[in-house]
Amino acid sequence: MKSILNIAQIWYNELRCICKDPGILMFILFVPFAYPLLYSYIYTNEVVNDVPVAVIDECNNSLSREFIRNIDASSDVKIVAHCNSMDEANELLMGQKTYGIIKIPASFSSDLYHGEQTRVGVYCDMGKMLNYKAILLTTTNVALAMNKDIKVERHLPATTQRQEEITKMPVEYEHVPLYNPQSGFAAFLIPPVLILIIQQTIFLGIGMSMGDSRERNRGSVIPFNKWYKNPVHIVFGKGLPYFFLYILIAVYMFTVVTRIFTLPQLGDYWTFIAFIVPYLLACIFMGMVLSSLVYRREDCIMLFVFMSVPLLFLSGLSYPGASIPEFLKYISYVFPSTFGTNGYVRITAMGASLQDVRTEYCGLWIQTGIYFVMACLYYRHQILNIVKKVKPTL
């Protein structure tokens, strides 16, 4: 009973400090509720349409004009200018009137007529990856379609229309991107970003709270009174306000945000709850451990904010996991976001069960145990330091 009272008192003190501090409230309330809406709204359209492109047709015959018409007929690219030289096209590109240049060489038709391989130049503005993707994929698809027609007409003449169809496509197939049928950027990026926002805002909130405690308690993260004598009580008491708050935030992201912006949501609700519990605990306890490096309120911003983008890449979702060096993979296992983002994406987008994400689930529980012990050891050290300071005065 006494332990429960101690934890409750520490919980109350921590909650009171949070509610009185506008900076902490901004990081743990405003950012988790507002950022998901902002990020999702930016990428609402998922894909881009009618990306403006300039064309340089040095061949200028029926075959090259057909190639250009097929590109313009696609929904992703729009031909807005026909230029006579690369300098003229480059001016449009530099002025952002176009985002790409397609150059058809003078030998385009003659190369094909003589059965030789020809080349079409595609130059894209890499500042916007979605535009680059639209231009490159459209040009590639048009080239592949024209290759089939040329193969039938000039090299493998058929006697019937059905034979032509078989020659063009011996094996009929239908391309459907699994778990992201639109190949949209929001469905790919937003789910892992939501989980990363939870981790980073927890780190910032706990870090700012510890920095504030050091400033108020002359360098100590805990006050000297009867409630703060057991490190286990301190860890639980300080962690409970964040845990209960972020359970609500996680449910808000899983339900409200995903439904408003029609993001993938195939996972079971209770599977998500069971998975998010160890993730939140691991983030809270790791936040306490990392916050031992925070001596001023502002330190946590410099310490944690810059980590967001590297952690997104280290998770293996934004950058191919198979291409990440082994030593960086081991570093990524230190952070809950690596297991959290991979497990969350598989639950929401693929409808995975806990058994399907058991590696990530077990990894989060292992992190929870390790960081809980480390947090207890850190607060035990703080308690001993306070005792040493008090004894000489007695």
Automatic annotation (TrEMBL):
<feature type="domain" description="ABC-2 type transporter transmembrane">
    <location>
        <begin position="24"/>
        <end position="376"/>
    </location>
</feature>
<keyword id="KW-0472">Membrane</keyword>
<feature type="transmembrane region" description="Helical">
    <location>
        <begin position="301"/>
        <end position="319"/>
    </location>
</feature>
<feature type="transmembrane region" description="Helical">
    <location>
        <begin position="364"/>
        <end position="381"/>
    </location>
</feature>
<feature type="transmembrane region" description="Helical">
    <location>
        <begin position="24"/>
        <end position="42"/>
    </location>
</feature>
<keyword id="KW-0812">Transmembrane</keyword>
<feature type="transmembrane region" description="Helical">
    <location>
        <begin position="269"/>
        <end position="294"/>
    </location>
</feature>
<protein>
    <submittedName>
        <fullName>ABC transporter permease</fullName>
    </submittedName>
</protein>
<keyword id="KW-1003">Cell membrane</keyword>
<dbReference type="Pfam" id="PF12698">
    <property type="entry name" value="ABC2_membrane_3"/>
</dbReference>
<feature type="transmembrane region" description="Helical">
    <location>
        <begin position="185"/>
        <end position="208"/>
    </location>
</feature>
<feature type="transmembrane region" description="Helical">
    <location>
        <begin position="243"/>
        <end position="263"/>
    </location>
</feature>
<keyword id="KW-1133">Transmembrane helix</keyword>
<dbReference type="InterPro" id="IPR013525">
    <property type="entry name" value="ABC2_TM"/>
</dbReference>
<dbReference type="InterPro" id="IPR051449">
    <property type="entry name" value="ABC-2_transporter_component"/>
</dbReference>
